[in-house]
Amino acid sequence: MGxxxxxxxxxxxxxxxxxxxxxxxxVAKRCEFSxxxxxxxxxxxxxxxxxxxxxxxxxxxxxxxxxxxxxxxGAQLLARLARMQVDFHRRYPDFGRLSTQIMSATGxxxxxxxxxxxxxxxxxxxxxxxxxFARGQRDGTLRAGDxxxxxxxxxxxxxxxxxxxxxxxxxxxxxxxxxxxxxxxxSAAFAP
Length: 192
What we know:
This protein is an all-alpha fold. The protein has helices at residues 3-17, 24-31, 35-38, 45-68, 74-91, 93-103, 114-138, 147-164, 166-169, 179-189. It is elongated.
């Protein structure tokens, strides 16, 4: 009980209701805490959002780093990375919804420094993915082009898939695109 319980409740509420639609009172109620008890763990709603995002982002970055450190060609690692990212957002669908909201222009909370925090995390992920593209270019399994640009295109494809994935959106409806079609589309888009 405690901080992890608060982060879990906030992740769920932020993911389902949005940042602006969630109050600290709702988070406290979900945790069966008083609002005063909640303030023993956090100082503000903004701090809570940063903690929610930071927890899952750190886990996702560690999984990305692990995936990209494995043996295999660039194309094989790209396929593994895409699969891992789909699975990660399904494992944490509230985080998936929240990150999709944050990446949209209307989802950005108006708090100082928040956009920079998100940009730093995004840039770190793009840097890892760009390394993967450079590796695949060296081994001849991924297309030529600026690795950072290719990483950004890849990231946009994955983000779009999360936004349409019924398992992440929780709506039960969505693109209905089978994973195999998405993954083969990624592979074909970046083949040499």
